[in-house]
Amino acid sequence: MSTSEHHDDGSNEPSSTERVLNFIETEIEKDRAKPTWGNRSLHTRFPPEPNGYLHIGHAKSICLNFGLAQRYGGKCNLRFDDTNPAKEEQEYVDSIMEDVRWLGFQWDGLYYASDYFDQLYLWAEQLIMAGKAFVCDLNAEEMRQYRGTLTEPGKNSPYRDRSVEENLKLFREMRDGKYPDGARTLRAKIDMSSPNLNLRDPVMYRILRAHHHRTGNKWLIYPMYDWAHGQSDSVEGITHSICTLEFENHRPLYDWFCVNLGIYHPRQMEFARLNLTYTVMSKRKLLQLVQEKHVQSWDDPRMPTISGLRRRGYTPESIRAFCEKIGVARFNSMIDVTVLENSIREHLNKIAPRVMAVLRPIKVVLTNYPDGQVEYLEAINNPEDPGAGSRKIPFSREFYIEEDDFREDAPSKYFRLKPGGEVRLRYAYIIKCEKVVKDPNTGAITELHCTYDPQTRSGSDTSNRKVKGTIHWVPATHALDAEVRVYDRLFSTEEPDAAEAGKTFLDYMNPKSLEVVHAKVEPCLTEAPAGARYQFERLGYFCVDVKDSKPGKPVFNRTVTLRDTWAKLEARGDS
Ligand code: ATP
Ligand code: MG
């Protein structure tokens, strides 16, 4: 499915059961129809390297792999691809498990590539004995020179014709620590003139003295990704090993290892990775953002990590819906980040209770409202969800409105509050602005003095009067003060990865990606639980930050603005 086919609002989408099969499902159905398939069941895996936190791109792979297992009644493993000890940590392992579960999936088997280090070692000896692997003494630079290029064949290593006995002896000595890091490698003996560079005698093992998060100091040689991945799939009985397109060129090597070891041979298939506008997605860059403190942590709500999106207020349902919507294809493309934003809007519109909050307050005094009187006005919690009920909001003489909802020099089509103008207060009355009170020294507006029309109470309006604008408000005496973090996109350009010469993605960071405001919110939010999600009427969706909120003192994160309707109306000057 191409992205251009998608509707912004998700309407007219076929449900997941009736939608067209993607190309992977089509291939799987063909495989399952073959007589050789027998009564096997589908088995996929999600294989992250525990060298960082998962991001929204990984969510695509998770939804795909776990989703296929669900669809076809199969299994999906979680396997940590931990062959690179220098960069891997337990913290990442833990966060990955948490994120997969949070997305709503449960793995069948939980494995680590390091579970197979012994088996891989034995298989390496098997290839040596078959004359299909050799110990090479070329250093990295020499190896590069021998490899050739896309247009020129490579040259055989001078060590390629060592005897089986010598290779075995040297390989065992590599294992036993006889040589320094990098001194020797074990390479597969394939074809130095293959047009596919991955088949030009690829390295299988390197010598590396590094502490491994699971095997400790047991190993001084570590398998390369290509040597470990297919065989791990094979051991686990994976039927379809689904990876991203950059591994397409590695498939012949994946196949070569399985065939030459004579072991069970899974099918590798490739799909396009997710790229999102206004976002960087490689773990290396995300790590750099964290380490250089451009963001506060991996779960900073501006990060495209699963944990960042979670803290920002995204729901697992919205991320799964997003992955379903973007589909799976075999060509690389860029998905507009608004597709992701729309998927959380759509979900929160259904489930989030509505409340009123004023981010940048101006105080209003109703000069004709009886002093000391309090009315309790009925407000619907969620018009999309009749079961959500209603609540009472105290209304009295003083309240706050949004700075943006008042303009002293308003254009004629400005239908919010202006001197001498009228507006409806949501759930309450029509008010009229009588006087703008200013600080005599600074000239800044301190208060608005207004009058209200008692005939116009919402729900029992007997006046038959119409005004064009409705604005939200928060009662002054009962307001809760709350810190609100108004998040925006982390980058101010569509493709921060495509930096022009002399620049990096860091040069495109949005300086306004976080603005902290001190807001006034409805008193009912005092006990809002950590993680709870709300719609602040007319402003957007917000959630209670799970890390920095304290009992009775919630901190809110802006998840996303409302649908851009307000912005459009504002542009026309007639909100
Ligand atoms: P990164 O480049 O961000 O570090 P990676 O591919 O090295 O990503 P892995 O931990 O190796 O990260 O990825 C685990 C799985 O997730 C792999 O199967 C990989 O293909 C898939 N994956 C990673 N990034 C994306 C993406 N942007 N879109 C779809 N799948 C992805
Ligand atoms: Mg990787």
- The residue-averaged pLDDT reads 94
| Helix vs. strand class | alpha/beta
* Fraction in beta strands: 15-25%
Q: In order across it, which strands form the biggest sheet?
A: 12-25-26-27-23-24-13
CATH class of the largest domain: Alpha Beta
- Number of extended strands: 27
Number of helices, counting only DSSP H or I runs of 4 residues or more: 13
**CATH architectural grouping of the largest domain:** 3-Layer(aba) Sandwich
Label the overall shape: elongated
Bound ligands: adenosine-5'-triphosphate, magnesium ion
Helix percentage range: 25-40%
Distance between the termini: 37 Å
Poorly predicted residue ranges: 1-14, 565-570
Task: Chart the SSEs and their pairings.
Layout: H1 23-33, E1 43-46, H2 56-71, E2 75-80, H3 90-102, E3 110-112, H4 117-129, E4 133-136, H5 140-147, H6 164-176, E5 185-188, E6 203-207, E7 221-223, H7 225-236, E8 240-244, H8 251-261, E9 267-271, E10 274-276, H9 283-291, H10 306-312, H11 316-326, E11 333-335, H12 337-351, E12 354-355, E13 357-358, E14 361-366, E15 375-380, E16 390-395, E17 398-402, E18 422-425, E19 430-438, E20 445-452, E21 470-471, E22 473-475, E23 480-487, E24 514-521, E25 533-536, E26 540-544, E27 555-561, H13 565-572
Parallel strand pairs: 1-2, 2-3, 8-9, 10-11, 12-25, 14-20, 18-21, 23-27
Antiparallel strand pairs: 4-5, 5-6, 6-7, 13-24, 14-17, 15-16, 17-22, 18-19, 19-20, 23-24, 25-26, 26-27
Helix pairs in contact: 2-11, 7-8, 11-12
This protein binds adenosine-5'-triphosphate (ATP) and magnesium ion.
